[in-house]
Amino acid sequence: MGAAADPVGPELLEVSGVSKSFSGVAALEDVTLRLRHGTVHALLGENGAGKSTLMRIVAGVCTPDAGELRLEGRALRLGSPGQALAAGIAMIHQELNLLPAMSVAENIWIRREPLNALGLVRHRELRRRTRALLERLGVDLDPQAELGTLPLAARQMVEIARALSYDSRVLIMDEPTSALGERDAERLFAVIRDLRARGVGIFYVTHRIDELFALADEISVLRDGRHVGTSCPRDLTRRDIIHMMVGRELSSPPAATPVQAAPVALSAHGLSLEGWFCDVSFELHAGEVLGVAGLVGSGRSKLAETLFGIARPTAGEIRIGGAAVRIDSPPAAISRGIGFVTEDRRETGCLPGLSVLENLEISALARDFVRLGFVHAGAARRACAGMASALRIKAPDLRERIETLSGGNQQKVLLGRWLLLNPQILLLDEPTRGVDVGAKAEIHQLIARLVSAGTAVLMISSEMPEILALSHRVMVMHEGRVAGILDRDLATPARIMDLAAR
Ligand SMILES: Nc1ncnc2c1ncn2[C@@H]1O[C@H](COP(=O)(O)OP(=O)(O)OP(=O)(O)O)[C@@H](O)[C@H]1O
Ligand SMILES: [Mg+2]
To answer: What does pTM read for this prediction?
Structure first.
């Protein structure tokens, strides 16, 4: 089913002339779009282009300053997400909105639990419904598992399951695959195709351009809050799409230069964390990028957390510059020159309530306190402002709270925080998650520059092109073990996948 099958009658959803400003800065200007029955309408644009804002308006989370929405021809006034859900519009949010202390089932069905005649929750029925939903998504999760104990990809699946549970006519997906590996993403695509065949209209926001060709019936691009155009993916190349998004040509990714026999900066020897990974050994040299590939759930993120002192290894040894060290907390890691960009910006990365500047300077300040005993506030601010412009962080004012930034711009702040510190060892877990193509190329160049200045980088990534573009060597993990470490010239996608999915 494609865009060719023009339905008669009104469109499923029409957005006309929608504008929205935040403290005087326009996030959306006069945007008009329509979503047809039984189609996937992809929405693209750079970080901060206004995609999430537009989707939040359609989902009743925020109200437009001007313009209107129509659902099957009827004007739609939404005062809350509840009203949107009642009208048949559900949304999978970019930043997950789940309750970590509650179970998977409770998170999905909160305030909609099946009740018995006495008004008590029918727990068995609750679990049954949850299992059925998760099965549809092809994920094997215990409905009673506490959400906060699950890896990010599993939490993303719970967020998706919750949106599906509403059986809505309009489904909005704001970067649903940004935390998923390829297998989970494929499974999700099958669910999307099935929903589309049943007439559901889907707005799909993504930065993964390749997904569009497999999925989208129509593509709309936003730039600086304005609608640039809508086309059919058949008529577009990847290059056309990027051009519509960024309006300029992109710099090509830097080729990793071979490392000269540099000293080992960080090494692990038989490192284990019970239940997560086992007997991991590797050496990371100064000026080297060691890519860490593997399926989601292969233990990669826990390994990084352990190297950064968030989790304590149950066996094995970590050495820095050849000497065994005990890293039992993040401050201990930082004082040894290690930086860590976490995969989960919402839970462990951003400091909500603090400004963009404060979020940027926090690590540098912590270190300057230790080293100098006092803070150069002015110098720190200038360095932060410089970093914000180097990363093209789109923020109306660096003194605004970090939550007001778009998801991709928050990610840039977290990366900038560690770049400012110039760490000797940098651990990156999905460093460009949710970052647009243009910013991604810039971030890759920043990493390459850092590495050529001698920083050792351990980079976890689920994106094969990213791994291949930056890594000198690739360590492939499989179910908590090192399946192999490949030199750059042997690291082909086929070889990596083969090791990752044995
Ligand atoms: N609650 C808010 N307060 C202030 N500014 C906001 C708020 N929400 C969004 N903005 C601003 O609106 C603009 C658009 O943000 P939006 O989140 O819609 O971008 P996006 O296209 O989804 O980007 P990304 O790809 O990074 O997710 C940004 O400049 C952002 O800083
Ligand atoms: Mg967004």
So the answer is: 0.78
